[in-house]
Amino acid sequence: MKNTTNEIRQKFLKFFEKKGHTILPSSSLIPANDSTLLFTNAGMNQFKDFFLNTEKKKYSRITTAQRCLRTGGKHNDLENVGYTERHHTFFEMLGNFSFDDYFKKEAIMYAWELLTSKEWFNINKNKLWISVYKDDEETYNIWLNVIKVPAERIIRIGDKNNTKYNSENFWQMGDTGPCGPCTEIFYNYNIKKHYNSNDFLENKNEYFIEIWNIVFIEYNRISSTKLIPLKYKSIDTGMGLERIASVLQNVKSNYEIDIFQKLIHNISHFSNIKNLNNISLKIISDHIRSCIFLIYENIIPSNEHRGYILRRIIRRMLRHAYKIGIKKNFFYKIAPVLIEKLSENFKFLKEKEKKIKEILKIEEIQFSETLEKGLKILNTEINKTSNKKISGKTVFHLYDTFGFPVDLTLDICREKKIKVDLNSYYLEKEKQKKQSNIGNKFYENYNNIININDNCIFEGYKKNIITASIKYIYVNKNSVSSISEGEDGIIFLDKTSFYPESGGQIGDIGELYYKNSRFIVENTKKYGNTIGHIGKVIIGTFKINNVLYTKINKLHRHQIQINHSATHLLHSALRNILGEVVAQKGSLVTNTRLRFDFSYPKILNLSDIQKIENIVNTEIQKNNLIKAQNCSLEEAKKKKAIALFENKYDSIVRVVFIKNFSIELCGGTHTTRTGNIGLFKIIEHSSISSGIKRIEAITGFKAIKFLHDQENNIKNISISLKTKSTNIKEKIEKLIIKIKYLENKVNMLQAKENRYQIKKMIKNIENIKGAKLLINTFKNYDYQSLRSIIDQLKKDLKSAIIILINKNNDNFNIITGVTKDLIEQITALEIIKNFIQHTNGKGGGKKEIAEGGGCLNIINLSKILKIIKSWINSKLKNKNT
């Protein structure tokens, strides 16, 4: 293919290099030193200080191909992705920049030459249209008289809402900062030859594609109403690589260009979709590209900040995969296809291909079940609605109980032309915030309030789903006969597959359901001999004696199980390495980590930790069977089962066997084989009280991720040290020697400087009532050196009052010293207190030496010192009389 995306990028950069521009690499997607931006969203971001002239510029002409992401704030393209032919979350912005060099005429001439010259992009001049800001006469005349574009193809764009500079052709980065008028170049896709300005404005989005924006940065926006001219004028241009590629490859959609076509074909093979113009295929192909670059930047899915954006993109992508019938994990399978295509220009992506695949796979697995449930509930609500509107209450319940993202709900409803009552959604959200503390306290103490004299049979060791009947329902601490949609409460059953929080293991989550009714179980706890399912009704009604299904969240349970089995292995490994002096004092087993507290009187060192890890991982590799058996308490003791025998046990107990390596009394749930744990890694060990140690560990993919992060840290350190990872220790040792040498040299020079300063100062000694007074002011002097000077002067002068002041802009440090023979008359601390009374400072110390600091009006310093001298004189005089 001629004019591949990579060729277009290189042509652009080569053209401007020939015009005297320096090619600089793309900056990171994470903006450096700019808290106003979540991600780099334009080519000019890395040059923001250049435009404001706050940073010294090495180059006056620069060209780049900048990686960008737009998913929030002013520049948010997420909702448009897939529904238009031009929008992307991740894209590349080709740009050329001039800083106090060329301006409007040259910038326009360069753009025209690159686009229309046969040597370069060779676009038909008659297909190009121009827009300019209405008041920018200079730009208009350049297009008309220099470039010779016909007047009917130069469109003046005015202000919106009669607000000055509120125009599509007046560019500004944000509410404040560099800005200026801009001129845009459009490509006309339509074969119709004759247009006028009205045609252009009416058909701009349909027949015309904006391919280049040239911004003339000549102002700095101080506020919404105030602009001031910049001393130095600059040029900032931006041409979307994907857009110009669609023009040069003669296709009407960015998704038809080379970098997307192979990917879309590959995605379609996982589904039954034959129409490659399918919106979901476009969205997935766009989003997978964003995910690859975000994970490369060491961003991982989370519930906040940049990690949330990544999670949001992955979940939106998963929803569209589900929509076109792809219900098996596949993101990690298509990622290598795109990485292979991109690595022609982005070789660095290959380095993290494994990590990218792993994170995508984990996130997809974790969200798949949530997505399926959420979609069922949402579709039920959509089918029920008669006014084409979904309540905010439903949206909030999906979000609050399933973690079903609100933007996914909005996306689905938009497709089905269903309105969403967002106002009521926000009201529900605020209501939940206010009640959250109350709710937490309520559930925390609920099992102390409810007293049910009944049993519940736990059948969850072997079954994930069972049928059961409702025996009791509690809402707001009261026993009720039914619970309806939107209500929080606790449901008690005759039997269940849900494991209640017990023995350090957290409770199961999942759902209770029958017909169209759904109760989301958010936690499971013991209440005497029975089990309470704590949660919320999402849809329908539940009544006493209803027969329903209990269904646990299998992924949540699986992760708990492998962590619980790993805890047993850890316990035995500790006893093997440290001896039987180890006694369990507590544990916590969750779906994300495990924690084990135990008694041990000595210090745990790193070699102990590594031996423990090795033993546990050896047992994992053996893939031993894990089985449970009920037996008498006496029989369990004979088998040397580990137990907290100070606890009360029934006559029949449950014993968990991991071959002969671990035998423990345990009522919790476990995985079937040790190999399922995958990997065990201790991430923290500490002493929590006298003789009590704590170990925290992770397993499986979380352990792998932890090791990858460690590996990345070592790699980054080795890069900083300019050495191989294997040579880090040797390199650091050499640096330590060098630093010590330099420190000694600096100390020698500083000591020499101190002696010189002392020699100078002694000449300025004043005599007051037989006592020597020495006051000296320094500027930006080393604090430790001042302490050394004070000590030396006290030795040399024998009897003296010394005041040293160090100025640093409007701040000061003061150190005072008084020799022992004078402290009965005046102390260093008294001098400090007196001094800071005249400043905005603080201080303290002892009789012989004291110090302080704060803000100081330097103009008043001499006045303050005169007051201090007079006060010292009065003190000495009073003491001598």
From TrEMBL:
It is an enzyme of class 6 (ligase). PROSITE patterns: AA_TRNA_LIGASE_II_ALA (PS50860). Zn(2+) binds at residues 564, 568, 666, 670. Keywords: Aminoacyl-tRNA synthetase, ATP-binding, Coiled coil, Cytoplasm, Ligase, Metal-binding, Nucleotide-binding, Protein biosynthesis, RNA-binding, tRNA-binding, Zinc. SMART domains: tRNA_SAD. Its cofactor is Zn(2+). Residues 3-709 form the Alanyl-transfer RNA synthetases family profile domain. Residues 725-759 form a coiled coil. One of its GO terms (cellular component) is cytosol. It catalyses: tRNA(Ala) + L-alanine + ATP = L-alanyl-tRNA(Ala) + AMP + diphosphate. Catalyzes the attachment of alanine to tRNA(Ala) in a two-step reaction: alanine is first activated by ATP to form Ala-AMP and then transferred to the acceptor end of tRNA(Ala). Also edits incorrectly charged Ser-tRNA(Ala) and Gly-tRNA(Ala) via its editing domain. Homotetramer. Belongs to the class-II aminoacyl-tRNA synthetase family. This is Alanine--tRNA ligase. The gene is alaS.
